[in-house]
Specification:
The chain has 273 residues and is of the alpha/beta class. It has eleven helices and five strands; from the N terminus they run H-H-H-H-H-E-E-E-H-E-H-H-E-H-H-H. 20% of the residues are buried.
């Protein structure tokens, strides 16, 4: 405004009237909060560490770390740092059958519906390997991520048996129509224990949305950013990511809490002292 006065020889009052602004706007100074620098540095670190996180998930992580912040402030800092804000997905209608029932089986409680699927990737030498993922659809917890060059129906039965012993039986197990899941050995094993296999319609991956969403996160946050030199390395990093996903990673459907957060051990004697 001072430059305009020197150039055009008009007062601040007249200049503000010409551009239709209040004079107070020319005296306003942005107040920098005490934690602005540390918060900005932490957001930059989180974006570098979790490149596919949007502002809601970054905000949840910051709040868990003790920052008093909302998503608007995080978005502002992101824009100032030149980081793009993740776009929202468009809403989609659900698919309904003619009798009024929904195609998707809705999980009602923990261990109500499990789902499993196989994801493929490659090691550095170009050889493919496969990853068997099993999740609990209600809690979103990943129960198993097993990587191998080849996964057979017999191995699927072995992994299911181990999970059944440690966690109990689910009511349903949802899958696509892959040969590993439709094999007679697998279907007989599941049915004999009183669990119902639920196969989606061929060519309809959206009916298996929970496990497909998990596979997308694993590919986006892990597989697309890693070069695996050996199968041993792939197994270690995949299992490490599974533990991180279950215990640390904020999940938007769980109010930005992880599926199976680690319990914190508190020394009661120190609190009472």
């Amino acid at each position: 405004m001072a430059a305009a006065k020197a150039k055009y020889g008009i007062s601040q009052r007249r200049a503000c009237r010409a551009i239709r602004q209040y004079r107070s706007t020319q005296r306003y100074e942005v107040k920098k909060l005490p934690d602005e620098d540390s918060l900005t540095a932490r957001i930059i670190n989180l974006v570098a560490q979790y490149g596919r996180y949007g502002t809601p998930r970054i905000t949840a992580v910051l709040r868990r770390e003790g920052y008093t912040v909302n998503h608007k402030r995080v978005e502002r800092i992101w824009r100032q740092q030149g980081t793009g804000v993740a776009k929202r997905h468009k809403k989609r209608r659900r698919l309904w059958l003619k009798d009024g029932s929904c195609i998707r089986l809705r999980p009602q409680h923990k261990d109500h519906v499990w789902s499993y699927d196989i994801l493929e990737d490659k090691t550095y030498n170009g050889r493919k390997f496969r990853i068997l993922n099993i999740i609990d659809e209600y809690s979103r917890e990943c129960l198993l991520s097993f990587a191998s060059r080849r996964i057979t129906s017999s191995e699927v039965v072995e992994f299911l048996a181990e999970l059944f012993c440690t966690r109990g039986l689910p009511e349903y197990i949802r899958s696509d129509n892959g040969s590993e899941f439709t094999a007679k050995k697998v279907r007989k094993f599941i049915s004999n224990l009183g669990t119902y296999p639920a196969f989606i319609e061929p060519g309809s991956p959206w009916e298996n949305g929970y496990i497909e969403s998990f596979n997308g996160k694993m590919r986006d946050e892990l597989l697309n950013g890693e070069i695996f030199d050996t199968m041993a390395e792939a197994k270690v990093l995949i299992e490490r990511w599974r533990a991180y996903y279950n215990t640390i990673r904020p999940h938007s459907s769980l109010e930005y809490m992880p599926p199976a957060p680690e319990a914190r051990v508190v020394d009661i004697s120190l609190q009472m002292a």
